[in-house]
Please model this.
Amino acid sequence: MRCYFYSYSLEDPGQRGPGVVTFMIPDLDITFRARYMGTEIECHYAALLALLEFADINPKLFKQKILQIFSDNLAVVGQINRQINCRKEHEPLLHMALTYKKKIAYSLGWVAPNENPATGFLDFE
Model:
């Protein structure tokens, strides 16, 4: 089952500040979005972790399914897939995402921003 996540920091990407996190599961017609305080990468991790927590607490929706999760954030995808190193301050977030792999069958891949349907759900107005 294909799932997508995305986030947007309202501040300078390296600065901690308000942002928006979102995930989308098209096959189930589910879209989630929430405000989040963090850096750009923290917001992306928060969006992924929200998706994984949703899958974990709703096992009937995902029974016998492998989640194919996609993001347009190369850093998070690369860190989860152990292709690039994670900064020390983000290690707890990486560990949480990897811990979910013990409970949920998922893979994480990159998708171009214009092919990520979760990017269209950021308008709070």
Summary: The mean pLDDT is 91.
